[in-house]
Amino acid sequence: MSKALAYAATSKTSPMAPITISRREPRSNDVNIEILYCGVCHTDIHTAHAEWDGLIYPNGTIYPCVPGHEIVGRVTSLGLDVKRFKVGEIVAVGTMVDSCLECDNCKAGLEPYCEKYATWTYNAPDRITGDNTQGGYSDSIVVREEFVLKLNLPEQSLAAVAPLLCAGITMWSPLRHWKIGPGSKVGIVGIGGLGHMGVKLARALGAHVVALTTSESKRADALRLGAHEVVVSRNPEEMNAQAGKLDFILNTVAVPHSLDTYLALLGHGGTMALVGIPENPHPSPSVASLIGMRRSLAGSLVGGIKETQEMLDFCAEHGVLAETETILVEEIETAFSRMVKNDVKYRFVVDMKSLKRNV
């Protein structure tokens, strides 16, 4: 075991604080990574505060909990069998660090849907030791080679790259699955950490993008991000003008709300995919709304490793990056509080150099 500096929650009510954790010795197919930047995802808050106990995590949050699954870092050492990477290379790690790689889903590049074990970057048991995985609010991490991703983006952009590893792929995967591109008219519900990436990616894929927000104050920003149109969902006239016109809706909102309000915007055969997970259920949608226009209500998780690499390469080619605010690690509790209030445009990223000054 090697020691790593980290920031962790030690209970669901404790603030994030410095800690020293153990990282496993690299196995023959492992990559040891010095973490440079780590994005801050709302999942980090849900997990640290045990808000998904019994909902997403059957065994609850295991403490101490080191969140963080939007990781950009530098390779510091390699297992003997690693062939794809070299020491000093800048790489990335997303929401997963392992899966069986043998089941039908894994063979299809759908590792998050692994039929045996999908090992998340934090709060999941290591398949060999059973130890709880610890995430990117740390100075280093050890990851199986197959779950390390290559980057082809300039070093000065690395902070803005980090959120692509969750926010980006969470948007990219459903956009690709439902074959969004030129000729598609797409609605993005919620212009936040996820939604702003949805707008950028859908626009880069060639779709006509309609941003749907509850806030008039986000109209100008949504247009700047790439939306062709902006609809304030609290304005009945604006919503009625879009009724039946959208082919696909990507709904990022993670609080309970009326799904029927947005289903009505879909045309015949349209689909709304949910990616936000509310702490309490949404009100049930009207079955008549689905049947009458053969609409579909679906869900989507993060994409697999091949798909994530495709997304990173696409973003490099098209200059798509997250809108970020870089913070010091000691500011993480303030960042959590601001995220709960939607007071960030649009993703916090921790500069991990600050960790060495605070542990």
Protein architecture, described:
23% of the residues lie in helices and 26% in strands. By secondary structure, the protein is an alpha/beta fold. Strands 3, 4, 5, 8, 9, 16 and 17 form a 7-stranded mixed beta sheet that branches. Strand 16 (324-327), helix 11 and strand 17 form a beta-alpha-beta unit. The longest helix has 14 residues, at 305-318.
Key phrases:
359 residues, alpha/beta, seven-stranded mixed β-sheet, six-stranded parallel β-sheet, 26% strand
| Rg, Å, rounded | 20 Å
Could you give a short account of the major beta sheet?
A: 7 strands, mixed
Mean pLDDT figure: 96
Uncertain ranges: none
Q: What is the tally of helical segments?
A: 11
What's the β-strand tally? 17
The 3D shape can be described as globular
Distance between the termini: 19 Å
- Share of helical residues: 10-25%
Q: Given the helix and strand composition, which structural class is it?
A: alpha/beta
Strand content: 25-35%
Order of helices and strands: EEEHEEEHEEEHHEHEHEHEHEHEHEHE
Q: Care to give the gist of this entry?
A:
With 359 residues, the protein is of the alpha/beta class. The chain has helices spanning 42-48, 104-107, 158-161, 167-177, 195-204, 219-225, 236-241, 260-263, 287-292, 305-318, 332-340; strands spanning 2-8, 17-23, 30-39, 71-78, 90-93, 96-99, 118-120, 140-144, 149-150, 185-189, 208-213, 229-232, 246-251, 266-274, 296-299, 324-327, 347-351.
